[in-house]
């Protein structure tokens, strides 16, 4: 089997809902990261054989094959095809994995994986809500309702179930959230995001400027300020402060074969060591990364101690906390530069975004193996293990 290599991975800085990226069309967010891949890597981009784009809310400005529209808006040649996919929050991680599988199978040599999501312009759940308002029903078919009667597969409820199952307290969640902000602030101030972030030109009241710093980081966060945020549900434990931030953003990862490295004079940053996806309980839903990681490590012939850095998406604080507990993992290696609680979770763009950050962490620490996983709607989880070169 051929080996798949990552040459480059980039992302936009996160924009808060209604914030600095609100004025940028999602197609143009995608074009910005595609342009960066072209500008940063000295090769003829016409050799890119496909673009695979993750996006969750495929409605409004994110319809009509969002990835293809981003190609057409970018400096990439119009001859490059694109497809838009949805594996919920893992959409662009799956895009990276599909790209790697295409290379590993020998059917393609150069594939661009990406993710785009403007949660300001196409709000989360808006597509489903629109159809319900029009009397066209929801995603639950009669057979699905028969199997799961009265269950709406809520990620929020799944997160609260994890809290109870694993014995966490609200104080545990608050402390984790504070650490996410602290780590993100430290990484920003040290310039550790500079290599992965693509500046995006925006319009402000003072004229045009570049958006190049994650907008969601609470640089003045304290345990008291986080603990004081109201509960999302009476009697629960989770607040907006211990949940991922709604975010606008885009990301891209260039995946190539060994032959493409030679043909185009490209230098790899990492190779794909393992990739897998699993599914489990769709009700508790967000717990699947625990079991998916356990299976992935076994299949890859690795132990958790072999992994130098892990990115576990902070959809809600109890998810990475449960992951740490279940795998007996090292908290110092988890989300080293902060996570979605501080940096934002632009849904379909987060997977490739986390890959860019993971490679940055491995570079900063001189690590060898990195692991990425995230919880996804329907009780699914992707796991990708890379080896830094």
Description:
It comes from Sphingopyxis granuli. Keywords: Acyltransferase, Transferase. This is Fatty acid oxidation complex subunit beta. The chain is α/β, with parallel strands linked by helices. Helices cover 36% and strands 21% of the residues. It contains 13 helices and 13 strands. The strands form two sheets. Strands 1, 2, 3, 4, 5, 6, 9, 10, 11, 12 and 13 form an eleven-stranded mixed β-sheet that branches. A two-stranded antiparallel ribbon has the order 7-8. Strand 3 (50-54), helix 2 (66-73) and strand 4 (82-85) form a beta-alpha-beta unit. The mean pLDDT is 96.
Radius of gyration: 20 Å
Helix fraction bin: 25-40%
What's the order of the H and E elements? EEHEHEHEHHHHEEEHEHEHEHHHEE
Quickly give the structural class.
Answer: alpha/beta
| Beta-strand fraction estimate | 15-25%
Main pleated sheet: 11 strands, mixed
The low-confidence runs, each spanning 5 or more residues with pLDDT under 50, are none
The number of helical segments is 13
Mean pLDDT: 96
Number of strands: 13
What's the N-to-C terminus distance?
19 Å
Shape: globular
Domain Thiolase N-terminal: 5-259
GO molecular function, one term: acetyl-CoA C-acetyltransferase activity
Keywords: Acyltransferase, Transferase
Domain Thiolase C-terminal: 267-388
């Amino acid at each position: 089997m051929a080996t798949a290599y990552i040459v480059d991975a980039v992302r936009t800085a996160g924009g808060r809902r209604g914030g600095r990226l609100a004025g940028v069309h999602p197609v143009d967010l995608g074009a910005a990261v595609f342009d960066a891949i072209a500008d940063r890597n000295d090769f003829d981009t016409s050799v890119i054989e496909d673009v695979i784009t993750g996006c969750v809310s495929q409605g409004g400005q994110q319809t009509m094959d969002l990835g293809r529209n981003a190609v057409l808006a970018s400096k990439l040649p119009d001859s490059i095809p694109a497809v838009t996919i949805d594996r919920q929050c893992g959409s662009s991680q799956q895009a990276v994995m599909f790209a790697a599988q295409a290379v590993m199978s020998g059917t393609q040599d150069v594939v661009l994986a990406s993710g785009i999501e403007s949660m300001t312009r196409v709000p989360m759940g808006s597509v489903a809500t629109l159809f319900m308002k029009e009397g066209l029903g929801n995603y639950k078919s009669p057979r699905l309702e028969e199997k799961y009667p009265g269950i709406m597969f809520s990620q929020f409820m799944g997160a609260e179930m994890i809290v109870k199952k694993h014995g966490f307290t609200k104080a545990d969640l608050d402390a984790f959230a504070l650490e996410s902000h602290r780590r993100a602030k430290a990484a920003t101030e040290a310039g550790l995001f500079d290599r992965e972030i693509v500046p995006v030109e925006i319009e402000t009241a003072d004229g045009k400027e570049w958006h190049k710093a994650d907008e969601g980081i609470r640089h003045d966060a304290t345990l008291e300020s986080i603990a004081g945020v109201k509960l999302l549900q009476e009697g629960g434990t989770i607040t907006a402060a211990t949940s991922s931030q709604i975010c606008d953003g885009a990301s891209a990862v260039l995946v190539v074969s060994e032959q493409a490295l030679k043909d185009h004079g490209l230098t790899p940053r990492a190779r794909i060591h393992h990739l897998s996806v699993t599914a489990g309980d769709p009700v508790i839903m967000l717990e699947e990364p625990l079991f998916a990681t356990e299976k992935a490590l076994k299949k890859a012939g690795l132990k958790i101690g072999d992994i130098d850095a892990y990115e576990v998406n902070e959809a809600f604080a109890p998810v990475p906390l449960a992951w740490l507990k279940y795998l007996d993992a090292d908290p110092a290696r988890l989300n080293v530069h902060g996570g979605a609680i501080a940096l934002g979770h632009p849904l379909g763009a987060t997977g490739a975004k986390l890959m860019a950050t993971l490679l940055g962490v491995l570079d900063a620490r001189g690590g060898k193996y990195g692991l990425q996983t995230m919880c996804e709607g329907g009780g699914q989880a992707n796991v990708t293990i890379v080896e830094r070169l």
